[in-house]
Structure formats: structure tokens, C-alpha cells
Amino acid sequence: MRAMLEQYREVAPRGTVEFLRQLGQRVEGKRMLHVNSTRQGGGVAEILQRLVPLLEELGVKTRWEVMTGSDLFYRTTKSFHNALQGTKQRITAEMYEAYLECNRENAKRLDLEADVAMIHDPQPAALIEARPEGSTWIWRCHIDVSTPQRSVWHFLRPYLVRYDAAIVSLPKFAQRLPIPQFLVYPSIDPLSDKNRDLTPEEVDQILARLGVPRDKPILLQVSRFDRFKDPVGVVEAYRLVKKSHDCRLVLAGGTATDDPEGAEVLAEVQEAAGADSNVHLLLLPPTANLEINALQQAATIVFQKSTREGFGLTVAEALWKGKPVIGGETGGITVQIIPGATGYTVNSPEGAAFYAKRLLNEPDRMAAMGRQGKEYARHRFLITRHLQDYLGLMIHLG
Ligand code: UDP
Predict the structure, then answer these.
(1) Confidence of residue 257 (pLDDT cuts 50, 70, 90)
(2) What are 188-236's pLDDT values in tens digits?
(3) Could you count the other beta carbons within 10 Å of the beta carbon of residue 382?
(4) Model pTM?
(5) What digits encode the pLDDT tens for the residues 297-354?
């Protein structure tokens, strides 16, 4: 059972595994519960799949419960999600009732006994009504609730204030709540298929399979085809770079079939790209972790030119692969890119192109930045740091 944590010895900062074991001793035998609304899909589930067994290995008796609900419940929580992130939604009395009813049903069905319960995002937030005597409940908020639609916030707030603490992913995501709020950055798993080291041969093979030749520098952006990720701006930046540097552009994103807006954005990108054989639009299935990994490892410079962003895990992924990142000056990108040290933050295609050209002209600077970015990610954005934060919080909150 010890084996899993030991594997992180080679990738985490020195002393991390020992420190985690020491923290583990302080909470050994405590019962921790995580509740979210999906076992698979999305960043929250991805990180829990890994965190839960690691917490277990450290001696914390950890359970992960997943709430289930009707279609109306999921439609409601999707609207909550959008409303809390600032997009106005119409939410009916029937929808609010479905939310509460579903939380009540799940409270009966799920085993909520634990010393510390971490309740992820708004979907299960009202479970607090069924909180067992004597346990510590933490609301773990992964989304940006800094400018919520008032009505939805007012509906949820009475539940949230009953928690012992809240955790947000960025300082600016905090809301005014009369409970302690803590900052815990998300993280990536350096041993997963998306982030582990690949051999040069593996990278070559995968790129060949994807039809991306390795004859010139590769500029890459990995992201959903979403306007806020500004893929068209990336194509514009590439065109400006291309005037002086022969290079390829790879835009890798999900298949957009179930998302009408995604299909629209993809069409815009296709139009912007035209018939340029140096631009590669790759539509990857959700399981394409090795492909994304190989692309990030093969890239010369990684873009994440978002105009609005949550945390932006793709930035941490690229830093971890030793790549300088040019990213939009927004959201979590600004805590991951230290301008001039791990990459550059920009506000326009021209800005992105300017820094890309500068880096292409100075391979030494690019290599140094990549090394710095990797060390920065090692200390700040790996799952081992996430574990330290959670264990520290468990100790602090008793
Ligand atoms: N990703 C993926 N396939 C895609 C596009 C993105 O697997 O086609 C991954 C990407 O590697 C990252 C996550 O999805 O791990 C996106 O997280 P991020 O925080 O960057 O953006 P979000 O999509 O959550 O806004």
C-alpha cells in the first residue's frame, strides 16, 4: 500500500514525501468524506480519483460519495454554475425546489458520517442540512463566484454560511462569507498519462499518428473550442509570427458535437486557418491524455490565450513539461505565468506574437524559462502540494 506515494519521490520537491507522512501521522485514522456530483469527467473528478487513494495511503480513512439526481436537477445546477460565474440565467421556483429535493434525497441515501466532509461545488451544497453532529464541513468551491447573479447567490448563501470553512481556487474567487476562507490551487498529477515523462520515441510516434511533422517549431494551444479560449486570436498570433519564423500551429481541442457553440467556434477557427498546411486542428476524444501529453512535450511554445479563464490547468501541464507559456492575462493564468520567468501574459494577438518571436529568436532564454517553469510547477501545482494543503487544513480545523 505504500507504493503509490513513494512514486512521487522522484517528481515532487525533496522532502515532500516525508513531510506528507508527518502530516499524515497527525490525522491518522480520521474519517474524511468527499462529495461531488460526478465520478468521471471534469477536473474535480479527475483529481479526486488520485487524491482519495493517496489520502488513504497516508492513513486518512477516505470515502468519496457521488450524488445523483434527475434531469431537472442537473439542468438546475448547470444554470447555477453559469449564474454563479456571472451569466444571467432564469431559474424557476420549480428548479429551486428540484435542487433542494434532490439534496434531501441524497442526504438520506448517502453515508455522510465523517470527521471532515469536503463538499465540492454548488450541486451538493445543501447537504449541510443533514450534517451529522460533531463533524467539520468544508465547502470546496472550484468555480469563480466573484460576480454571481444575486438571486442564485442569495438562495445558496444560507446553506454556505453553515459550513465551518470554504476553499477557493484563486484569491479573487472569494466571496463575502462570514466563515473562514482558504486558498487552495488546483493541481496536476505528474504521474498520470497526461503528464508523465514520455520517451522521445513515444512522442515521435504519437505525433506521427496525429499527422504533425516535427520539421519546424511547434506553437500549441490545447483547449476546448470555446470563445473565451480565443483560438481565433491564436491563429492571428501565429500568422504574425509566421512572417518571420517558419513554424507550425497546433490547436488541439475536443470533438464539439454535443456543444453547438463549440461547433460554431470550430467553424470560425477553420475559416481563420484557411488552407494553411502548417496549421493543424486536432479534434481529440476525451480519452486522449497521451496525445495531449505528447503534443505538450513536442511543443516549442505553448499558448493559452484565454480572454477569460478559471484556473487554466493546461498552463500547469505545459510548465511541467518545461515549456514557456504565453497566456492571456486573466484568471489563474496570472498566478502560473511569472512574466519573464515562466512565460508571458498578454492581452492581444500582437502581444502573443511579439513574445513568441522573441522566444524563437532566443533559444537559450526559452530553455531557461522552461526549466524555471518546471520548477515552479513542481513546487506549486503538483498533486503532492494539493495533499499537503488538504492535510494541513484538516489539522488546522481539527
Ligand atoms: N483537455 C482535454 N482535451 C481537450 C481540451 C482540453 O483533455 O480537447 C484537458 C486539458 O489538458 C486540461 C483540461 O482539459 O487538463 C482543461 O482544463 P482547463 O482548466 O485548462 O480549462 P477548462 O476546460 O476547465 O476551462
Answers:
(1) low
(2) 999 999 999 999 999 999 999 999 999 999 999 999 998 989 999 999 9
(3) 24
(4) 0.94
(5) 999 999 999 998 989 999 999 999 999 999 999 999 999 999 999 999 999 999 999 9
Sheet bearing 325-328, strands edge to edge = 279-284, 248-254, 218-222, 301-304, 325-328, 343-346
Q: Is the CB of 224 under 6 A from ligand 1?
A: yes
For residue 184, give every residue at least 6 positions away whose Cβ sits within 8 Å of its Cβ, in sequence order, or none. Answer: 140, 167, 168, 169, 386, 389, 390, 393
Pocket residue to mutate for ligand 1, from 46, 282, 292, 311, most atoms within 8 A of Cβ: 292
**Grid cell of 13 as nine digits:** 520537491
Query: Quick check: CB of 342 below 6 Å from ligand 1?
Result: no
- End-to-end CA, the chain: 26
Cα 54 to Cα 62: distance, rounded to the nearest angstrom: 9
Nearest atom in ligand 1 to 283's CA: 8
User: Mutate which of 142, 229, 314 to test ligand 1's pocket (most atoms within 8 Å of Cβ)?
Assistant: 314
CA distance 72 to 105: 14
Check pocket membership of 311 for ligand 1, CB cut-off 6 A.
yes
281 CB near ligand 1 (under 6 Å): no
Q: Each residue of 54-73: pLDDT tens digit?
A: 999 999 999 999 999 999 99
Domains, the chain: 3-187+382-397 (3.40.50.2000), 200-380 (3.40.50.2000)
